[in-house]
Amino acid sequence: MSVPGVASILAVADSDSYLKWAAATLDRLGSVPRRELVVLRTPVRPDDVQATAALAGTGWAGRVVDDHSVVGLAARLRRTRPDAVLVATTGPAAEVLMRVLVALPYRPVVVTGLPGMSIPATARALEFRAGADVFVVHSRHERTEFDRVGREIGVRPTWALDRLPFLDAGADGPDDAPLRRVVFAPQAKFPRAPGQRLAVLRSLGQLARTRPDLDVVVKVRAWAGQAQTHDEAYPYDEMWRRSGDDAPLRWDAGPLAAQLEPGTALVTVSSTAMLEALALGLRGLVVADFGLGDDNLTTVYEGSGLVGTLRDVEAARFFDADPAWLVDNYLHPEPAELPRVLAELTGPGAPPLGPVRVRPPVGGRRALARRYARLALPAAALRGVRRVRRHGLAGH
User: Fold this and answer.
1) Residue 223, burial from CB neighbour count under 10 angstroms (0-12, 13-18, 19+)
2) How far is residue 256's CA from residue 102's CA, in Å, rounded to a whole number?
3) What is the pTM of this model?
4) The pairing of beta strand 283-287 with beta strand 8-13
5) Exposed, middle or buried by CB within 10 Å (0-12, 13-18, 19+), for 46?
6) How far is CA 5 from CA 43, 83, 126, 342, in A?
7) What are the mean pLDDT values of the chain's consecutive 10-residue runs (396 residues total)?
8) What gap in Å lies between CA 329 and CA 141, rounded to an integer?
C-alpha cells in the first residue's frame, strides 16, 4: 500500500531487538521511496555480531548501518528532514528522542512501538513514548490493554495493529514431523535467580543425556559481556561454563530462524522466540516452575495450552498452542495497519499535525538529565560509574 505524504522515513534503533524490529518494519513500508536506518549510540548498542544477526532476513542484511550520537542524529534530522521518524528504542532513549523531535524546525510523523510481546501493558512504556502519533501494537490483546492504560493516563496515540515482523511467514497447520531438535530461548531478565537459571540448564542437560537422538540447543541472544536490550545479571553461557556440567548441549548465538526447522520444539520462560516457533506451526513449552504472571511477563501465556514444567522438558513433552489463543495473541489474520494509518495521517485532506507533545519527564528532571548522560557518555564510562555507585553503596 502506498503512503501519501510520506516519501521518506528514518528509523532509529538502539539495541539488537529494536534493530531487528526497526529493519523489518521498514521492509513492510516498501512503498516509501526513501527508507533509512540508523543506530543510536547507547550502552545497549549492538556489536557487529549482534547487528548481523538482527538484520538477517531483512532488506538490510549485509549492509552497514550508520550510527549516531544523539547530537549527530539531531543534525541529520535537520539536514535530511524525513517525513516520518520511527523511534525504535528503549524507553529512556525514546524519551530523549521525543525532545529532540520537538526541537526540529519542521514536523515529521512520529511512530513508535515495542519489539516483542508487551503484556502486561504498562503506563511507563507509554509515558516514555508519549509524543508519538502512532504506536504499533502486535496483537488484539495488546491493543485492548494499551488502549485501556492510555485512557487512564491520558496518552492517546493512534494504534496500528501489525504482526511482529518475524511472524509474517505462517504455517498451514501444526508441525507433524518427528521431534529431532529442542531449542531453549533464554530471556535476559527471567528467571531472576541464578539457581533457577541453572535449573533450566540442568533439565536441558538431562534431556540431552537421555535422548542422544535430539539436538538440544541453547540459543542465546548474546554471549556473556555483550550488550543487549536488557541487562543480564547471570548469563547462561557463563553459568554453564562455571557449573562444569558436561551434558552435550549445543550453544548458538546466530539467527533463531536457522534453528526453527520442522521437527523442532521451542522451550522458554518468557522469550518472544516462542512466537516465531508458533508461527511456523512448531511445538513449544513455557516453563512455569518459577511462576506464571506479570512478575515474569508470562501472563500472556495463560490459556495458551503451552504451559508446562521442567519435568516436561526432561521427558520431551511439548505442546501445540490453542488456536483461539493464537488469533488473540500475535497470530491474528488482519493485514498490517501501519501503512494505512500513516496514509490517513498524511494523505489528502488530513488535518495538519500539531506540535509533538511531550509530558513532564518520567521520574523528574534529574532522571531525564541522567538519560541524556546515558546517551552522551561512552558505555565503558557508564559501567564504571555504576560499579562505583554499587560498591560505594555496598561499603556504606
Assistant:
1) middle
2) 38
3) 0.80
4) unpaired
5) buried
6) 35, 7, 26, 8
7) 89 94 93 96 88 90 92 96 97 95 96 92 96 97 97 96 80 85 87 89 97 96 59 79 92 90 94 90 95 79 95 98 94 93 92 89 87 70 46 42
8) 6
